[in-house]
Design a protein that fits this description.
This protein is α+β, with helices and mostly antiparallel strands. The chain is built from two helices and three strands, in the order ααβββ. It has helices at about 20-70, 75-85; strands at about 90-95, 100-110, 115-125. It has a three-stranded antiparallel β-sheet. Helix 1 (about 20-70) packs antiparallel against helix 2 (about 75-85). The longest helix is centred in the first third of the chain and has 49 residues, at about 20-70. The radius of gyration is 30 Å and the shape is rod-shaped.
Length: about 140
């Protein structure tokens, strides 16, 4: 006797015991997809944090260079600007009319971890930068 499904079509032998196999395969795949999404989210957050730290360092170096030209304390201007960008000033070096700044930004990561992202920048007049020579 041939078994029939609900619609009256014949059921092939061995197919009845395969019901639900797609669910068994889909669950691990969905888990892997979820894991990849979480990892990409964390990586994206770190990239954004690095860009924020680099922007803070660039802007602080420029503010320091302007302060040097005005005869003011460059590192005080740098520290104030870094604080306003929610970052931490790691170092501020003034050499002549050139200002070099290192900034750190702390980021919350999954599992309660905190990661520090560093960025550095240098600013000053064009004549303070060593000339680049072309290689023939």
């Amino acid at each position: 006797m041939t078994r029939r499904c609900r619609r009256g079509l014949p059921v092939r032998a061995g197919r009845a015991d395969e019901r639900g196999t797609a669910t068994v395969l889909a669950l691990p795949m969905l888990g892997a997809l979820l894991l990849v999404a979480v990892l990409l989210s964390v990586l994206g957050g770190l990239v954004v944090a690095q860009r924020r730290a680099q922007s803070a360092a660039d802007l602080a170096a420029l503010a320091g260079a302007v302060s040097v030209q005005r005869g003011q304390d460059a590192c005080a201007a740098v520290a104030a600007l870094v604080r306003r960008n929610d970052a931490e000033l790691r170092s501020c070096t003034v050499a002549g009319r050139e200002v070099q700044v290192v900034v750190a930004l702390t980021v919350e990561a999954p599992a309660g971890r905190r990661l520090r992202v560093d960025a550095d920048a240098r600013a000053g007049p064009v004549d303070a930068v060593p000339a680049l020579t072309a290689v023939p």
